[in-house]
Predict the 3D structure of the following.
Amino acid sequence: MRCLKTILVILILGAGLLAQDLRLTASVNRNNITDKDLLTYSVTIEGIRDFPDVPPPESQDFVLISGPSQSSSIQIINGQMSATKTITWQIAPTRTGRLTIPPVTVKYRGKDYATGAVTVNVSGSTSGQSQARSVAPAQSAGSDNRKDEVFLKATVPQTTIYKGAELNVSFDLYYRNVRTFGRKKLPDAQGFWIEEFPAPSQPNITNETVNGVPYRKAMIQQIALFATTTGDLTIDPLVIDCEVVQTNQRRRSVFDDFFDDSFFNDPLFSSTKVVTVQSAPIKIRVKPLPENGQPATFSGAVGKFSIESSIDTLKTRPDQALTLRFKISGSGNINSLQLPPLNLPNSVEVFEPKIAKKIDNKSGEIRGSVTYEYVLIPRRPGLLSIPALTFAYFDPETENYRTLTTRAFNVRVSGNASSPSGPSAGLSKSEISMLGQDIRFIMREPTTWRKPHETVFSQFWFWLLNGAALLIFLGAIGLRWWTDKLESNLTFARRRRAWPKVQARVRVLQERLAGNDTADFYSQLDQALIGYIADRLGLALAGLGPGEIEPALRQRLPDSDLVKATLKLLIRLDEIRFLPDAIADEEPAGMLKNVRELLNNLSKVI
Amino acid sequence: MRLLRLLLPVLLLTSLLFGKPEAELDRLFQEGNAAYQAENYTESIRLYEEALTRGYACGPLYFNLGNAYYRTGSVGRAILNYERAVRQMPNDPNVTFNLRLANLSVKDKIDVPPPFFLLRWNERLVNLWDARGWAGLFSVLLLLAVTGLAVLLNFDLGRLRPVLKSASLALGLLSLLVILLFGQKYRIETAADQGIIISSAVSSLAAPQAASTELFIVHEGTKVKILDVDEDWLKIELVDGKQGWVPASNIVKI
């Protein structure tokens, strides 16, 4: 307190403020401190009567130990009233060096007012305790011999942990003469889930010598921390108030020997004072869980767990509820346990699970269990299979993932669903009249065996009938066309009728020859032959002789022996007709045969 | 006639080579019937199904198989076989009766609005005969109409001519009508998109994935229309128009 020096930084904002002149001031009780000391930071508001809320200073370099405490005063000087309000916090530095407390901003009537920044020099600690902080009470600043009569030490087993792993922090009070202590503030730890162990009702007190000074040591608080994020995190200090017994520095007298016994040294007879002690903040490095080998079903459980599943029955009826339970128990971050989703068939109705968490902090580590209770209602008969559930957790001790699998259940759901609509719902009258009846009896004889997917298109008769229809249709059209042509086209008709005509004549001649009627035979034969050729070639019959036939035949058959043979025969026939002597060496039958052969040959080409 | 004489040995030969094992089929059919009468329905199902594995079937076989399934309580398969029997014998009162009776046990009662009366008449007319019958009638009518036409074209009939003319015209129009009926019946008979649910209850999902949303449940025996196939999933449509995906193993095509 002797070197107490106050920096006042006055910042006046809003030049237009005349009537209500708000002044905001930030100050600290001293500027040069060690990293074990506490700092009192005050913000003073002057000039107005309705005071706005003032937020605490925010800085990485300081932690808030206590506060805010407020005091206000009203003064009337020369008839002018001035009101002052002071808000005070206890803060502690987290590192050494020249530290700056940033300005605090206050919002008042829509305007922002800011204090100035305050700079504090923090020197390194003089005490050898790295994780202990002792604060000399202000009153005893003069008596250095009492400075370290009490201090608080926070201990962690390790400073690097996995995310989600349990970290036990114990706070030990080192003291020489403390009557009672009261916890002022449980450490705050951003990024941690904090679970408190019950404070021992009778602390176990041991003797320990620190830097040659004998202390009594009592474990006063133990907490378990589970990191919920990764990175560098800080465990804030634990602050307690101790009632320290003051040994009075009296002049030794004769009575001293008398009084100097255990009875009069009893604290009851001594005066006490309250000392605030806090531990040092602890930096913890939180590692993310290894990606390597992380099971797909992993949901953040870290510790040591076991899982069991149970079901109340394996045989049920539709629409009757079943209870399916999963219980995860063990030690670790019970609070962040999550059961992987159930994969149930659609035939079953699942209700939101009832989740019961039980945390046991009595055994030096955080143990507990989470019970998921599902109510299932199968909606239809059959085998309901409840698949096995896989639960994965990370074991920070062995640093690997473990996977647990529950039992799978097969529930037999038998009987009929008691649905409100009975079997006769939605039936028509005629259908209801059928209800009492039974199916008709089987058929005794098979019908024709067919391939099931054989259609009529693979049936022979189908194609036969339709083919016949087509043939008849085409035939009828063709016939009609034929007859039309015969009637309308004479040349065509002669050509078409030439063959039957000549055949008929030859047949007549043959009959006459058989009856020895040779009169006019050659003449008839000649006419039949010429008539045929004329019909086929479309020549006029009148005055037709070999001379007229030859060019027409030659034109039709350019070089063929048949023309010569035809002419030869025609000339021969003419000879016989006009020179009766020539008949003598000629056989009528042979001639007829020649003519028929010739006709046959001609019919193939003309 | 000469053509027939030529074809006959060929037909005989093919029927010998690829002939129907009729004796074997008849035996299985009768054995199945005997097992049915002895109330040994599972055995009769086995025998009937074995006959089906030979690649041949007939209406009575499907009917009897449907009866056997009905007796064992498999309504879905009973309906499936009755439906197949109906395709073979559309007018058999026993088949239609048993099909109606089996359909009473189907849980899904889907209300279908009655069709327009003309459509109803048309449906009745179409179902009067099977496709084979309609095809035969068509062939005969066509043959008669064509013969009438041939006679008209090529012969002078005198006073009979107008009579024959109107007769063959009527026959031609009739054959056109019959071929329309045949077409409908043929489509019904060869429809490959009809199926029967054979599992007691199936969830119909919104997508062909097991984890997808359940839309509705169809029960055994319900007749569905198959709209689409995706690997092991079928997209079905109920008579009332509801659509969903169902695992293919739950449905047998008629």
The radius of gyration of chain B is 24 Å. Chain B has a mean pLDDT of 85. Chain B touches chain A through 61 residues (CB under 8 Å).
